[in-house]
Design goal:
The complex is a heterodimer of chains A (69) and B (343). Chain A has 69 residues and is mainly alpha-helical. Helix content of chain A is 83%, strand content 0%. Chain A has helices at 2-33, 43-54, 56-68. Chain B is α+β, with helices and mostly antiparallel strands and 343 residues long. Chain B folds into 2 domains: 12-220; 233-342, 3-layer Sandwich (Rieske Iron-sulfur Protein), CATH 2.102.10. Classes of the chains: A mainly alpha (69), B alpha+beta (343).
Chain lengths: 69, 343
C-alpha cells in the first residue's frame, strides 16, 4: 500500500513540476496559446498561473493546435 | 464574449453581492469563534482556525450546490447564481486555510514530508471506522484547486466548454469526499453527533433539491403539446410570458426560450454559447437577451451577439393566433434573422 501511495505522490509531484515549468512559459508567451491574451493586461497572467499549472496538458495541446493552423 | 480578458468580471450587482458574501463570511467566523470559546475555552488557536474555516467551507459548498436547483425551482434565487463563481473561489480559499493549518498542526512535527505524512501516518485503509479521513479531505482539496484555479473565461475557451464543464462537475466528487471526510473525522475524533447530524441535514437538502428540480424539469418536458396539422406547435398563451422575460419549452428535444418584448415575441435556442447558461432564465436588457450566468447577450430576432461579438444561437419561427403562441419545431441555422411575431 505504501509503495502505491508513494508512486501516486511522485506522479503528482512530477505533474505539478511540469505544470510550473509550463506556467513560466505561459507568463512569457501567453499570446501563443490564446491571441486574446495579447490584448489583456499582463497581471491576468499571474491570476491564471495556478490554473495553467493545473491544466498544462490541455494548454500544450492548444499551443500545438495554434502552431499547426 | 469579449475582445480581451478581464481580471474579474465585476459589475454593480456583483460588487453588491460580493460585499454581502464577504460580510456574511466575517460574521460567521466571528460567531463561530465566540461560540467555540464560550463552549470550549481549552481548545488551541490552531484547532479553532481549522474548525472555523472547515465548517465555513462546508457551509459555502452546500450553498453552491443548492443554488442551481433553487433557481430552477424559483427564479427569485437567480441573483445568487450570478455570483456563484466568486463564491466557489472563496470556498476553496476557506478549505485551503483549513487544510493548511490541519497539515501544519498534525503532520509537520516528524521527519516525514507533511504531504506524505497525510497519506502514510495512518495506513488503515482497509478499515471503515479507522479509515484515514484526512486523505479524503486532501483529495477533495485537490479537486477544488483544479476548479477554483480554472474559474476564468480563459480556461472555458482554451480547455473547451466540454472539458471545462466536466472538470467543474467534479464538485460532486469533492462533495462526496468531503462528506465522508467530515463523517469519519467527527466519528473518529470525538464521535461528534451534532456534526454528523448537520452533515446529514445538508446531504438531504442538497439531494432533495436536486431531485425536486429534476422532477419538475422532467414534468415540463413531458407535457404533451398539441401538434397542429400545418406543422406548428401550440405552446402557451401570450399572457403566460412576462414582459422582457421568457418561457422555456422543449421542442424536438431541444430547449427553446420564447421572449416577449415591445409587443413582439421571438424564440431562440435556450443554451448560451459561453457556458451553456439557460438564456430563458435571463431577461431582455437594452434590447438584448442577457444570459443570467455571465451576461452574454444575443439579439432576440436573430440570435446573434451584438457587434463586434460573434456568438450565435439558433432561432425559431413563431405565430400568434387568438392569444395563443405557436412555434415551428424546426430550428433555423444559428444567427438566422426571423421576423418577430406581433402580439
Amino acid at each position: 500500500m505504501e509503495t502505491a501511495i508513494l508512486t501516486f505522490l511522485i506522479i503528482l509531484q512530477i505533474y505539478f513540476l511540469a505544470g510550473l515549468a509550463f506556467g513560466v512559459y505561459f507568463i512569457l508567451f501567453a499570446k501563443r496559446i490564446d491571441p486574446l491574451m495579447g490584448n489583456s493586461k499582463k497581471v491576468i497572467r499571474l491570476l491564471l498561473f495556478p490554473g495553467v499549472v493545473a491544466t498544462w496538458p490541455f494548454l500544450i495541446k492548444r499551443l500545438f493546435q495554434n502552431k499547426n493552423e | 464574449m469579449g475582445l480581451d480578458y478581464k481580471l474579474v468580471l465585476w459589475n454593480k450587482h456583483k460588487k453588491k453581492y460580493d460585499k454581502i458574501f464577504a460580510l456574511s463570511i466575517v460574521l460567521y467566523l466571528v460567531l463561530f469563534i465566540v461560540l467555540t470559546l464560550l463552549l470550549n475555552p481549552e481548545g488551541t488557536a490552531e484547532t479553532l482556525i481549522i474548525r472555523a474555516f472547515g465548517s465555513l467551507a462546508i457551509l459555502m459548498l452546500h450553498i453552491i450546490l443548492i443554488i442551481g436547483p433553487l433557481c430552477r425551482l424559483n427564479p427569485q434565487f437567480l441573483p445568487i447564481l450570478y455570483n456563484r463563481r466568486h463564491l466557489g473561489v472563496s470556498m476553496f480559499l476557506a478549505a485551503l486555510i483549513h487544510g493548511t493549518f490541519a497539515i501544519i498542526q498534525f503532520h509537520t512535527l516528524g521527519n516525514t514530508n507533511p504531504i506524505v505524512s497525510v497519506f502514510t501516518s495512518n495506513l488503515d485503509y482497509g478499515s471503515l471506522t479507522n479509515f484515514p479521513f484526512q486523505v479524503l479531505g486532501f483529495l477533495a482539496l485537490l479537486i477544488l484547486f483544479f476548479m477554483a484555479s480554472t474559474s476564468h473565461d480563459f480556461f472555458l475557451k482554451n480547455l473547451s466548454p466540454k472539458i471545462w464543464k466536466g472538470l467543474h462537475m467534479m464538485v460532486y466528487v469533492a462533495y462526496a469526499l468531503i462528506t465522508l471526510h467530515v463523517f469519519l473525522g467527527a466519528f473518529q475524533q470525538e464521535t461528534s453527533l451534532p456534526t454528523i447530524g448537520i452533515m446529514l441535514v445538508g446531504f438531504i437538502l442538497v439531494s432533495g433539491l436536486h431531485l425536486t428540480a429534476a422532477f419538475k424539469e422532467t414534468k415540463n418536458d413531458n407535457i404533451k403539446k398539441k401538434k397542429e396539422e400545418d406543422g406548428w406547435l401550440k405552446v402557451c398563451q401570450v399572457r403566460e410570458i412576462m414582459e422582457n422575460r421568457a418561457k422555456i419549452f422543449t421542442v424536438n428535444q431541444e430547449r427553446v426560450a420564447i421572449f416577449k418584448y415591445q409587443g413582439k415575441l421571438s424564440a431562440i435556442h435556450n443554451v448560451c454559447k459561453h457556458q451553456g447558461g439557460p438564456l430563458g432564465e435571463g431577461k431582455i436588457v437594452d434590447g438584448c437577451v442577457t444570459c443570467p450566468w455571465h451576461g452574454y447577450q444575443y439579439l432576440p430576432q436573430n440570435g446573434q451577439s451584438p457587434p463586434p461579438f460573434t456568438e450565435k444561437v439558433a432561432t425559431y419561427e413563431l405565430r400568434v393566433q387568438n392569444g395563443w403562441v405557436f412555434i415551428k419545431p424546426e430550428a433555423f441555422p444559428e444567427g438566422t434573422e426571423v421576423e418577430p411575431a406581433k402580439i
